[in-house]
Amino acid sequence: MPSIDLSSHDILRHVPHHNNQQFLAERVKETLGNYTLRYPTEQRYRGRKLRTSPLHTRLEVQGACFGETNAYERPMWFTNSHDDYLYNQYNSEKGKGTFGKPTFFDNVKEEYWACKEHVCLIDMSSFTKTEVKSKGPEALEFLQYLSSNNIEQPIGTIIHTGMQNEFGGYENDCTIVPMENNTFFMISPTSQQTRSLNWLRKHRPLDGSVEIRDVTSAYAGINVIGPHAPQLLYDVSGINTSRQEFKQMTCKVIDVGFASNIIAMRLTHSGEDGFVLYVPSEYGLHVYETLVKAGKDYGIRDAGYYALRELRIEKFYAYWGSDLTTHTTPLESGREFRVNFEKGEFIGRDALLTQRENGISKRFAQFFLNDFDYETDVWPWGGEPIYRNGKYCGTITSTGYAHTLERMTCLGFVTDTDSQGNKVLHKAMHEFILDKSAKYEIAIAGKKFPAEVNLYTKPTVYQNGEPVFIPAPKR
């Protein structure tokens, strides 16, 4: 296994569409013909609009500025400015980028607060969707072996699990739901479409007892997020959305408007209340328009992936590909609670048990920058060095501005090494990181900013039936 994560260079990062000769002829003009400085959030503008969701045309009209992942167009943010729209679309030439405050900052801020105070719709159709099934218990046994969490749960339970390699690292970070008739519905990140299918097919039984189907294109995904999401879903479906009847991390098959067989999951990937609706693609636009019409009284609006990113970073949620990789384990990323060692054998179990016994040398952490001016300072975008008491100790993996805290927030790994550069193992790594004598700094464009460190996701607290975000206290 390579000493560093090479996922960004792995051929499995591509989807079959990338092998189209006309697409390659168009994209290569930009990729090889123009080795210029790339700015953060910059998008390719050739070979675009290849894979789109059923909502795409409607979202274009709404002012969506799209980004591309695995050739799939995804709304990153929304604008009312015609100039902004043209500047950021796939048909426009590259404009001037920035390493500082992005041009869409205020737009994303509005979407962020709408997610926390009203209700927003985020098109998440690009997420990888996989169906795993069998005639008997073979599908369950198969997923139990691949997953580090316990998949043997009641129908309708949402299980968040890693799929580890033999070293305990993440090959996939996914959501699995047991459905009826020995069928399992699995959701993975957009970038994992080829990788996750390859991992499943690599390990499936040779007797053909387990069927694996990529159903990504069969479903649109709509994230209904915000405090008014439960009432809105009740209005359009008639189902009881109280927390007693529709519990967090559970799933129901419902009707919305005239559309049936919609998989509704009570989670939002952000820490805010709400639901992700996986809708048969032919019903996608109808369900979206039904939600928009019914949501006018609740201040409904569209939001994009940048708002979702800032919500999850503020909540200290890790994401596969940036924070979680083949070289990070659940113990190192603070996700040991999603590993079930008692269920029996699974890939990576021995490595994780050894790590639990011997200790870890690095740990995922959240940092809040001090003395940072988001208007004038260069922003962190990932890859920035972390210093502990003046000594380099790791790198930043994800960044975002936390509007609730009004702080620039970074996620990354802190590693302990000795004077020779050898890793030092800790059975209580949190004590090393949270030592009161430790002073942290993040270096951005040659300037060091003092930072406060946090290791724990703050639980969602409810007041008067509504979720309330509790800011992380200063250390």
Description:
Residues 2-53 form the FAD dependent oxidoreductase central domain. Pfam families: FAO_M, GCV_T, GCV_T_C. This protein is α+β, with helices and mostly antiparallel strands and 475 residues long. It has three domains: 7-104, no CATH class; 105-358, Probable tRNA modification gtpase trme, domain 1 (Gyrase A, domain 2, 2-Layer Sandwich), CATH 3.30.1360; 359-475, Elongation Factor Tu (Ef-tu), domain 3 (Beta Barrel). Helices cover 21% and strands 27% of the residues. It has eleven helices and 21 strands. The strands form five sheets. A six-stranded mixed β-sheet has the order 10-11-12-9-3-13, with helices on both faces. The chain has a six-stranded antiparallel beta barrel with strand order 14-17-16-15-18-19. A hairpin with a 2-residue loop joins strand 15 and strand 16. Helix 4 (105-117) crosses helix 9. The protein is globular, with a radius of gyration of 22 Å.
Radius of gyration (CA) equals: 22 Å
The CATH architecture designation of the largest domain is: 2-Layer Sandwich
* Average of the residue pLDDT scores: 91
Instruction: List the uncertain runs.
Output: 90-94, 469-475
- Broad shape: globular
Specify the number of helices: 11
Kindly report the name of the CATH homologous superfamily of the largest domain. Probable tRNA modification gtpase trme, domain 1
Q: In the CATH hierarchy, what is the class of the largest domain?
A: Alpha Beta
Number of discrete domains? 3
The strand order across the widest sheet is 10-11-12-9-3-13
Overall helicity:
10-25%
* CATH third-tier fold name of the largest domain: Gyrase A, domain 2
Number of strands: 21
Query: Distance between termini?
Result: 38 Å
Q: How is the biggest beta sheet arranged? A: 6 strands, mixed
Which percent band covers the strand fraction? Answer: 25-35%
